[in-house]
């Protein structure tokens, strides 16, 4: 697992959400050596506001918070197209029994850790989940690039076809008649394959 350069401008952001400042401080102390940018939120509402403007790679989310609890916050996060793919790890002082853990997973969490948790386990999980999320983002950027390239190539092919059709229209009648059907078929084929 690679450790990101803390001075790199493109380092990833991990959103820490907990209503207790001492818990946020403890999370920062545990994660500081990973080189990620750590962003704090003291409530579910504040977390959602951050997610409107920040690009986040992982969310560590407390379950028990006044107002909007962690489960509700996760449902809002997973309900937004921009944020639905961000992995969420629930952290809770509640008994991590089957019902609470199931509720966490049902809300979209990728993991559920009961406090007190082993700091080394949390660091390892954060490292792996951030790396997986960043690899997924890189694949999405590559897909988007390939899609744009295919669209550009399709537009160029259609432009060439238009020029061929124009040239065929100016050709002698016998040549134009022989080219009309193949050019029409080529146009249909290109239009059908356009991304």
TrEMBL record:
Is Phosphoprotein included in the keywords of this UniProt record?
Answer: yes
Sorted UniProt keywords = Coiled coil, Phosphoprotein
InterPro entries noted in UniProt: Bact_response_regulator, CheY-like_superfamily, Sig_transdc_resp-reg_receiver
- Gene3D superfamilies named in the record: 3.40.50.2300
Q: Which domain of life is it from?
A: Bacteria
Q: Which residues carry this modification: 4-aspartylphosphate?
A: 62
SUPFAM superfamilies membership: CheY-like (SSF52172)
Chain segments annotated as coiled-coil in the UniProt record: 129-167
**Limits of the Response regulatory domain:** 13-130
Q: Which SMART domains match?
A: REC
Q: Which PANTHER family match?
A: RESPONSE REGULATORY DOMAIN-CONTAINING PROTEIN, STRESS RESPONSE REGULATOR PROTEIN 1
What is the protein's name according to its record?
Answer: Response regulatory domain-containing protein
């Amino acid at each position: 697992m690679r450790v990101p350069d803390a001075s790199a401008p493109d380092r990833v952001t991990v959103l820490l959400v907990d209503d207790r400042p001492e818990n946020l401080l403890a999370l920062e102390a545990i994660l500081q050596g990973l080189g990620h940018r750590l962003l704090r939120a003291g409530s579910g509402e504040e977390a959602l506001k951050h997610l409107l403007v920040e690009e986040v790679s992982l969310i560590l989310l407390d379950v028990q918070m006044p107002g909007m609890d962690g489960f509700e916050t996760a449902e809002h996060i997973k309900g937004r197209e921009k944020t639905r793919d961000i992995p969420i790890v629930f952290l809770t002082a509640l008994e991590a029994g089957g019902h609470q853990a199931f509720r966490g997973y049902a809300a979209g969490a990728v993991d559920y850790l009961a406090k007190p948790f082993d700091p080394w386990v949390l660091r390892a999980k954060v490292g792996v989940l951030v790396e997986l999320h960043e690899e997924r983002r890189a694949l999405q950027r590559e897909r988007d690039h390939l899609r744009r390239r295919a669209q550009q190539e399709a537009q160029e092919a259609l432009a060439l076809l238009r020029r061929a059709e124009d040239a065929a229209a100016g050709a002698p009648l016998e040549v134009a008649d022989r080219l009309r059907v193949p050019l029409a078929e080529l146009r249909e084929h290109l239009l059908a394959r356009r991304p």
